[in-house]
Amino acid sequence: MAEPGPAEPVHAPAAAGRSPTRAPRRNRVTPLGDIVAAELRGAWTGNRGILHEGTDVVRLHRGRLWIICALHYKDQRLPQWAAGHFTVLFFHDEAVALAAGHRPCALCRRAAYTAYRQAWAAGTGEPVPSAAEIDRTLHGERLGRGTRRRRLHPVAWAEAPAGAFVRTADGPALVLASVIVPWSVQGYAAARARPRGGTAELITPPSSAAALRAGYRPQIDPAALRSTGRPG
After folding, report:
1. HSE (CB half, 13 Å, CA atoms) of 198?
2. Half-sphere exposure of residue 52, counting CA atoms within 13 Å on the CB side?
3. Is the separation of the CB atoms in 26 and 39 below 8 Å?
4. What pTM was estimated for this model as a whole?
């Protein structure tokens, strides 16, 4: 098993979501990996290194290690916006976090990390990867080399796995079995029919998409399922 890297968190914040007294800070992550200010609650936290100066986010990432962490870990809390500490980010659900190019943390989400690695190997036909191998591969899949430009990956609609995100004319949308569910910073909207043919623009990095095809099951906001008429 891979050991956690030097930027893996020791603990995660005790809570996430909107503040009752202050405007939201820029620390929510979209499926395309952008960092925005929004009131949408986060089911997960994570990091990409130290991105802030004061309370302003001044860079997209710092290094290849992009992880998804539990909100609660050992009843401890990380400082937000602290100098010298990584920038605490929040994700609406795990499907959003995977689409953004993050992967489960090896420390606070060990079981999910192990399941993800095994599904990655099953889906790609490669040996079970180390954390460093995952981070290097995902970094190449989410951003154009030497740029901050987000990479999208053409795939036949029939090959887009449930739990992945695609880009549509209206923005990102979550793929489920027979529908897609549009997403915005307000959350999930009403589902619509999934195209039966043609090509989709896959947002979720191909290696994570392969893990989804092989059986990795990310946490998805129940609102996305309710929009389809299924129970949350």
Report:
1. 7
2. 20
3. no
4. 0.88
Q: What are phi and psi of 174, to 5 degrees?
A: -80, 135
Dihedral through CA 183, CA 187, CA 193, CA 195, nearest 10?
10
Q: In 10 A of CB 10, how many CB atoms?
A: 11
Q: Which residue reads 């710092």 in tokens?
A: 62
Say how far apart CA 164 and CA 104 lie, in whole Å.
15
CB 176 within 8 A of CB 194: yes
Helix, strand and coil percent figures for the chain, each rounded to 5: 20, 25, 55
Please tell me the distance from the alpha carbon of residue 200 to that of residue 197, in angstroms, as a whole number: 9
- In tens, the pLDDT along 72-90 reads 877 767 778 888 888 999 9
Whose CA is closest to 165, among 97, 215, 217, 109? 97
Query: DSSP secondary-structure letter at 159?
Result: G
CA distance 13 to 10: 10
Of 52, 51, 62, 49, residue with least CA distance to 143: 62
Q: Which two tokens stand for residue 225?
A: 């399922």
Output the CA angle 47-213-174, nearest 5 degrees: 60
Identify residue 193 by its one-letter amino acid code: A
Dihedral angle, C-alpha 50, 75, 132, 94, nearest 10 °: -90
pLDDT computed for residue 191 by the predictor: 96
